[in-house]
Amino acid sequence: MLNQVLYEKDFYGWLEHTIDLLKQGRLSELNMEILIDELESLAKRDRRELLSRLVILLAHLLKWQYQSTHRCNSWRGSIVEQRYQIQKQLEDSPSLNNQLETLMRKSYHDAVKLAQAETGIAASQFSKQCEYTLEQILQDEFYPNIK
After folding, report:
1. 3-state helix, strand and coil shares in percent for the chain, rounded to the nearest 5
2. What ranges in 67-123 are assigned the alpha helix state H?
3. Which range of residues forms the domain containing residue 119?
4. How far apart are CA 142 and CA 79, in angstroms?
5. 53: in domain
6. Domain count, the chain
7. Full-model pTM
8. What is the pLDDT of residues 46-102, one digit of tens each?
9. How many whole angstroms separate alpha carbon 49 and alpha carbon 46?
């Protein structure tokens, strides 16, 4: 019961208490339902973060390709930053590599919408499917050719 009350009143306190219970092997005192929900939320959060970073990376690569006259250091910086953060996330959670190809395909449509909103280029001007390979988008030296 203390576990439930602590969870509702002080999430960080609940985390610390839960960690202590786990370290001490006092599993019967854990609220497994809450613990499972939180662990599932963490997994979803990491997947959403990776998806979000792929959207931003792809959008900036599209802008780089389709609006070459507006290229700037902030676009390059965003591309570098997203690649860096994706690599760090994959180092921390290597099993996300198994979902990377699917997440890249899934993020492309949103990347086109973002690139369209930021450039004013009609969505119909962008390719219907991602023209870049997963290896290319994660490669530091890759910047798409001018359209």
Report:
1. 80, 0, 20
2. 73-92, 100-119
3. 46-138
4. 10
5. yes
6. 1
7. 0.84
8. 999 999 999 999 999 999 999 989 999 999 999 999 999 999 999 999 999 999 999
9. 5
